[in-house]
Amino acid sequence: MARAQKKVGAYVLFYVPAGEPDTWARTDLWKSAADIPGVRVHEDREGAYSKMFGAYTSGQTFLYDPAGRLLFNGGITASRGHSGDNAGRDGIISLLTGEALAHTVTPAFGCSLRGE
Q1: Which of 5, 23, 58, 88 could make a disulfide contact with 106, Cβ separation 3.0–4.6 Å?
Q2: How far apart are CA 95 and CA 20, in angstroms?
């Protein structure tokens, strides 16, 4: 988000299992995400949003253009817990700056959202 320079808004969704209050997801990670400028955090009750967007892995990222067309789908880290340069992050920055895009799909690293 720091490199996007207000060119994109982001939603970070936190899974909340059935029977748990919304506050179940309000962890330190929630606060960290909420503190990032341009990021809005929301509960994903029973994975409803994940299913709607077709997300299978935590950390999976989707980028849509203003017309609702999917431009990017994948991970924005090179491995679980990694931060720094990687193909997914570079791809999104390329899309936002109008540069040639090398990758529109990258692997996403994280926990399964489908219990598979």
Answers
A1: 88
A2: 38
CB 40 within 8 A of CB 70: no
Domain presence at residue 5: no
User: Using CA atoms, how far apart are residues 95 and 111, in angstroms rounded to an integer?
Assistant: 27
Global pTM value: 0.80
1 pLDDT above the threshold of 90: no
Phi, psi of 77 (to 5 degrees): -135, 155
Statement to judge: residues 20 and 41 lie in one domain: yes
Task: Give the helix/strand (H/E) hosting 32.
Answer: helix 28-34
For residues 48 and 72, membership in a common domain is answered with no
User: Is the same domain home to 19 and 44?
Assistant: yes
Domain count, the chain: 2
The sign of the CA dihedral 13, 18, 22, 25 is negative
- The pLDDT-based confidence of 2 (bands split at 50, 70, 90) is confident
Token pair, residue 64, equals 């849509």
